[in-house]
Model the fold of this input.
Amino acid sequence: MAEAMVKTIGGEGLDDAHNHLQDPLLAGRWPEVREALAAVPVRRAAVNGTCEADWPAVERLAADCPWVHPSFGLHPWKVKERSGGWLRRLRALLERHPGVGVGEIGLDRWIEGHDLEEQAAVFRSQLELASELERPATLHCLRAWGRMREEVDKGPRPRPGLLLHAYGGPAEMVESFVAAGAYFSFNAAFLEPRKERTREAFTAVPLDRLLIETDAPAMPPPEALDRWGWRDPASGRRVNHPASLGLALESLARIRKMDTKELARVLRDNFSSLFGAGG
Ligand SMILES: [Zn+2]
Done:
């Protein structure tokens, strides 16, 4: 299967701009996951670490799979878990792997017990690091779009660009984020009927700033559209299968009134522009 995945590099296929393949919910079923990804085919994946505890798993996955583009970062949900030396560790990791990204980092006022100022300080120091080392940065934002725009406007901003993963902000903010060098990734979870405004915002994104993603194992598509129906055996909660990327492509093509093949070609170019062309 490893050979099959590698063969798709440079050819047809889809690129997942944001997921967490290192998560035990997926890594625990790795042979099945790989086979399903090869069938889509998923050509490349930007795999994001979220905390010091999962950085080594992302590093191992990238070493095993040349189609994985790793990013390392401290997620806003994990700020309280960080060690005293977290930023030094992150810098060392990024310096050890030239070209890898910074992510997943961001701001989140949705999560219970959040401390936005603490999150913002952690976010800023990672954005500064990404800018200094000229790495693409992947941003998470929930219910904090005004503050996110302020932070991004203030800078510094990494030269390769920013990814606003699963962009759920208003259409009116798209223009200013574009000016700041942002890309926007569409997630099939936005097919929930109540997400109409989010789907609409994706009509305002310039074609050369669009990407698709799964955020797997998070953000499953609406249950009726979920071909896999995977669940976390411990919690019973739904698990997003990373091969749901095909659904993200089809639905974004409908929203943009484009041919899926033509859109897939544009998305491959956009992925390379942000994350680099390498496998
Ligand atoms: Zn994520």
Q: What stands out?
A: Residues 18, 20, 48, 104, 215, 218 surround zinc ion (CB under 6 Å). The chain is about 40% helix and 15% strand.
